[in-house]
Write a structure and sequence with these properties.
globular; 116 residues; alpha+beta; Glutaredoxin
Length: 116
């Protein structure tokens, strides 16, 4: 018997990338703002909520996303929503609201003009 279910449009429903870039010479970067800890927190919270895996969510490390002035930075696709976060509570809110329920966390949005 073959599976006749319609395949998903994308392998993951949502994909969140955390900039973990570290610049040399003390230049401002996400790594200076505990980005690795935020990535770890997001991954563990998403796992605990059963959000990880095919057809669900993927939490990924990224190099420079070139929006350093707003750091630390994370971006969620396919919506292309850019977040600036500060602490574990921000990460928890992104997981619960956006990754789990698809609702953008407006208060954490990175302003569109913020670049490097």
């Amino acid at each position: 018997m073959t599976d006749t279910a319609t395949p998903p449009k994308s392998y993951y429903e949502r994909h969140i990338f955390f900039c973990l870039n570290e610049r040399k010479g003390g230049e401002e970067c996400c790594a200076q703002h505990r980005a690795q800890e935020a990535f770890d927190r997001c991954k563990s919270q998403a796992k605990a909520a059963g959000l990880l895996g095919a057809g669900k969510v993927r939490v990924n490390k990224a190099g420079c996303l070139d929006r350093c002035a707003g750091g630390p930075i994370a971006v969620v696709y396919p919506e292309a929503v850019w977040y600036t976060y500060v602490d574990e509570q921000d990460i928890d809110e992104i997981v619960e609201s956006h990754l789990k329920s698809g609702k953008v966390v407006e208060r954490l949005l990175t302003p569109p003009y913020v670049g490097r």
